[in-house]
Design goal:
The chain is an alpha+beta fold and 177 residues long. It folds into 2 domains: 31 residues; 118 residues, no CATH class. A hairpin with a 5-residue loop joins strand 4 and strand 5. The protein starts with a helix and ends with a strand. The strands form 3 sheets. The protein has a 4-stranded antiparallel β-sheet with strand order 5-4-7-8, with no helix packed on it. It has a 3-stranded mixed β-sheet with strand order 6-3-9, with no helix packed on it. A two-stranded antiparallel sheet has the order 1-2. The chain contains 2 helices and 9 strands; from the N terminus they run H-E-E-H-E-E-E-E-E-E-E. It binds heme C (2 copies). The site of one heme C (HEC) has 21 residues, from strand 3 and strand 7. The site of one heme C has 20 residues, from helix 2, strand 3 and strand 6.
Length: 177
């Protein structure tokens, strides 16, 4: 009996191991394959496009309204400030933006945050790293060149104004200077 018990528990732990591997592999595949597609540079300047739908990832929906969508779905992390930096003003939603750019936020009380863009061009400030006193000022810094938004803003989701066509007077996407 003891040896039977041992072999049962051994095989069930092997099963657990096996299923854990499957999940990990699936995640990795998701990250590198189906979540992101190579497209022509006419479709997206960076040649990459998010095709992962609402799959959870910091690279999801570049150009999208991160804060608004997470709030309306009741899912996803709570961000105080979030958006995407692109190469071109009229870049369509879900196209990858520019990596390695810094977005500087200065709030109404003089607190500052430096937010790096990831490989999708996305940047974000998590709720636990706040609060941000409104209105804030924003600037984009790339290779030592800085471009500042002239007007202080009170909406943390940059994409509500910085759409591909530009809303509320914005010139289009946030681009690197
Ligand atoms: C159209 C809706 C939508 C947009 C736009 C969107 N998200 Fe999400 N996001 C979701 C949903 C839904 C989830 C939860 C997915 C799940 O739990 O499977 C999520 C989850 C995430 C997660 C995963 C958090 C975790 O638990 O690991 C991250 C990170 C994330 N979003 C970042 C962003 C960023 C950054 C942007 C903007 C550039 C963005 N999202 C735009 C819908 C959206
Ligand atoms: C309520 C609308 C709105 C929101 C939200 C908004 N912007 Fe803007 N942004 C504008 C408008 C309008 C302009 C052009 C006039 C100006 O500079 O104030 C602009 C211009 C800019 C510029 C300067 C472009 C240039 O080269 O002159 C940068 C950089 C910028 N925004 C970054 C951001 C960032 C980063 C966020 C989010 C943290 C953000 N904006 C949120 C409306 C908005």
């Amino acid at each position: 009996m003891p040896s039977l018990l041992r072999s049962v528990s051994l095989s069930s732990s092997l099963l657990l191991l096996a299923s854990a591997c499957v999940i990990e592999e699936h995640d990795e595949e998701g990250e590198d394959g189906p979540l992101v597609a190579e497209v022509s540079s006419e479709q997206c300047n960076a040649g990459l496009r998010w095709v992962g739908g609402d799959e959870e990832s910091t690279r999801m929906h570049p150009g999208g309204d991160c804060i608004g969508c997470h709030a309306s779905r009741g899912e996803g992390p709570r961000y105080l400030v979030a958006g995407t930096v692109f190469e071109m003003l009229d870049e369509p939603d879900d196209c990858f933006g520019l990596e390695g750019v810094t977005v500087e936020i200065t709030d109404a009380e003089g607190r500052t945050w430096s937010l790096p863009t990831n490989d999708a061009g996305n940047f974000f400030l998590a709720a636990q790293d706040g609060p941000v006193a409104m209105p804030y000022r924003a600037a984009v810094v790339a290779e030592g060149v800085r471009a500042e938004m002239a007007t202080p803003q009170s909406t943390g989701s940059c994409a509500t104004c910085h759409t591909a066509t530009g809303a509320q007077g914005a010139p289009g996407r946030i681009i690197a200077p």
